[in-house]
Amino acid sequence: MSGESIVRTFYAALGEGKILGTKCGECGSYSFPPKTACTECGSRDIEVVEMSGDGELQFYSSGGLPPLRFADYAPYAYGLVKLKEGPMWLTMIKGVEVVDHDKMEAFFTTLPVAVKAKIAEVAGTNIVTFEV
Ligand SMILES: [Zn+2]
Question: Where are the domains of the chain?
């Protein structure tokens, strides 16, 4: 599958509520978002698979200057999730404190916490976010 068609397949699946990644036939590693070659060993022996949507939030941040197209959603949290299948993903995090710094600090002491993928339309595009 070409890089372009794998991206198209990924977004079409998001519209149907499915989150796709790729699994390597060589080393068994998962890549997310789907790649034409394994991110671990470079093998092109990959298959497109549906991801579980389970992950663990490693950390997040909020505030600062959002990209203009996300300004309407501010303040929001942006964090790093380790997917159950292995890959890391930096994305918007829902269901966490984004204003009160003391509450955020208290929550940080509990990390990593389990999160679940949630497909959300942001600025006209479906993206994979995670919710605590
Ligand atoms: Zn591999």
Answer: 1-51, 52-132
Closest-CA residue to 50 (of 34, 37, 36): 34
Domain 52-132 adopts which CATH fold? Answer: OB fold (Dihydrolipoamide Acetyltransferase, E2P) (2.40.50)
Ligand 1 centroid, distance to 30 Cα (angstroms): 8
Q: How far is the CA of 41 from the centre of ligand 1 (A)?
A: 4
Indicate the pTM of the whole model: 0.90
Q: How far is the CA of 5 from the centre of ligand 1 (A)?
A: 20
Cα-to-centroid distance, 20 and ligand 1 (Å)? 17
Q: Grade residue 123 by pLDDT with cuts at 50, 70 and 90.
A: confident
Give the separation between CA 22 and CA 127, rounded to whole angstroms. Answer: 17
